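Duplicate of #3305? Posting structure anyway:
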């Protein structure tokens, strides 16, 4: 099968998990004997056959842009004329059996309608809320989660719905029930939505439960308010579990807050700093800086429990599945897709999002009886073999519509 993937970003240009997933998918498809081409928004890389010019700026540079350029980006993200011609040329040149779009921010709704106009089977994966929110996350610029849809986003949603309605993707995959449910309001998506969870790489053998009186908790992700980092720091301090530690991996606007609660690694948190290189503070908080590659495995080996304290409708944190696949219990916020991804055995560790007191209670609950919350291997999340099987079904169904 010839598969054309659409993804705004492509490694090495990475902002989040969606583009990493798409790149991993490309390799898995090739390993399974399929041919893969990729169209991106100005991101060169392996298997990329065409790039939509990243005007007015590359997505990964959004944080440093002035308001005037951000406004222009939002305008082009409603209608990008470059996408139409470049994607059409790529489809004609590659002759795909199916187009599979992922995050298409910057390429506009044209990326979701051109395959249908050309009568090419089309599958779209919902990794975020781009179809509903101009910031893709339903999070405000100050880092707080939205509680209602603002007028600007409602207007853009209405425009995109009109654009897509006549040539919508044949199958729409949500990475969780929660993200799919948010998109049920889109009239064109009715009857096309289904769930296909994010897979994880095959991990090492799940480790045995450790008898720990002073557990090591871990957080891995962007250091931002909507991720619940501030709530976690407050809750950990209030829990006051003698001898326990909190390893915090990641970068973001709250880095200085994490560092003031703990200590950066010697040398100011270099990229790829290993957990073992962090300097603990008197409060037990350790700021690790960016954690990835081999250092991610070190991180998982060192922690006893992962904490996912999101304060937004987090679609499906891949780090949660990575922890479950290693037999690491997860304390998670009742937000987005987190509750459905938590192991049933650890469901008692769920807590109301933004509730620092409740999170402190869950930290103490785990510390009192860690073995009670560890899932057996059969509860591990979806592997790549199962994911590809579900994807092939979606590809075939798209061609049959």
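Output from current build:
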């Amino acid at each position: 099968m010839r598969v054309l993937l659409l993804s705004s970003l492509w490694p090495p240009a990475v902002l989040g998990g969606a583009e990493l997933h798409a790149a991993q998918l490309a390799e898995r498809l090739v390993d399974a004997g399929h041919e893969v081409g990729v169209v991106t928004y100005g991101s060169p890389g392996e298997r990329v056959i065409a790039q939509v010019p990243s005007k007015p700026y590359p997505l990964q540079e959004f944080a440093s842009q002035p308001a005037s350029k951000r406004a222009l980006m939002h305008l082009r993200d409603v209608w990008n004329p470059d996408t139409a011609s470049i994607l059409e040329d790529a489809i004609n040149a590659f002759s795909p059996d199916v187009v599979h779009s992922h995050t298409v921010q910057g390429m506009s709704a044209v990326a979701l309608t051109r395959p249908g106009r050309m009568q090419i089977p089309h599958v779209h994966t919902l990794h975020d809320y781009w179809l509903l929110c101009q910031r893709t996350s339903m999070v405000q610029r100050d880092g707080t989660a939205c509680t209602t849809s603002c007028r600007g986003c409602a207007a853009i949603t209405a425009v995109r719905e009109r654009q897509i309605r006549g040539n919508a993707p044949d199958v729409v995959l949500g990475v969780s029930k929660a993200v799919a449910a948010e998109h049920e309001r889109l009239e064109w998506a009715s009857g096309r939505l289904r769930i296909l969870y994010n897979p994880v790489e095959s991990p090492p053998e799940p480790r045995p439960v450790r008898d720990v009186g002073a557990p090591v908790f871990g957080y891995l992700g962007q250091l931002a308010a909507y991720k619940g980092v501030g709530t976690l720091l407050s809750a950990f301090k209030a829990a006051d579990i003698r001898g326990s530690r909190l390893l915090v991996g990641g970068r973001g606007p709250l880095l200085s807050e994490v560092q003031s609660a703990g200590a950066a690694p010697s040398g100011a948190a270099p990229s790829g700093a290993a957990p073992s290189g962090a300097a603990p503070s008197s409060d037990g908080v350790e700021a690790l800086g960016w954690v990835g590659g081999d250092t991610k495995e070190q991180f998982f080996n060192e922690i006893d429990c992962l904490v996912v304290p999101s304060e937004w409708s987090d679609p499906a944190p891949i780090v949660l599945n990575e922890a479950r696949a290693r037999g690491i219990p997860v304390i998670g916020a009742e937000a987005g897709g987190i509750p459905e991804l938590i192991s049933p055995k650890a469901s008692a560790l769920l807590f109301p999002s933004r509730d620092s007191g409740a999170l402190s209670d869950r930290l103490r609950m785990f510390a009192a009886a860690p073995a009670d919350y560890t899932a057996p291997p059969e509860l591990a999340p979806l592997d790549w073999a199962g994911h590809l099987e579900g994807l092939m079904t979606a590809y075939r169904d798209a061609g049959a519509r």
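Confirmed duplicate; merging threads. The radius of gyration is 21 Å. The longest strand covers residues 2-7.
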